[in-house]
Specification:
By secondary structure, the chain is an all-alpha fold. It has five helices and no strands. The longest helix is centred in the middle third of the chain and has 17 residues. The termini are far apart.
């Protein structure tokens, strides 16, 4: 009865991995809107919400309107 994202974490391929990304500011906004939302996997939120807070402290004018745990559908309205 769990979502596929939660069920996937019990499979043997649930191993730690490192990711290196290069984004522009518009892409960072989209990333945070998608990956800090209510529907996001809990382990992803453990990484993205503290990262969002760092961006909000550094560049508040661009990221202050992003609210963690907001519904993705509501967050998508910020992209327009």
């Amino acid at each position: 009865g769990q979502t596929p994202q939660i069920a996937r974490s019990v499979l043997p391929n649930s191993l730690a991995s490192k990711i290196i990304v290069t984004y522009n500011l518009r892409t960072w906004r989209h990333f945070f809107l998608m990956r800090c939302s209510k529907e996001t996997h809990p382990q992803m939120k453990q990484v993205t919400i503290p990262l969002l807070r760092a961006f909000q402290d550094t560049i508040p004018i661009l990221f202050e309107d992003i609210v963690p745990e907001q519904r993705q559908a509501d967050a998508m309205r910020l992209l327009r």
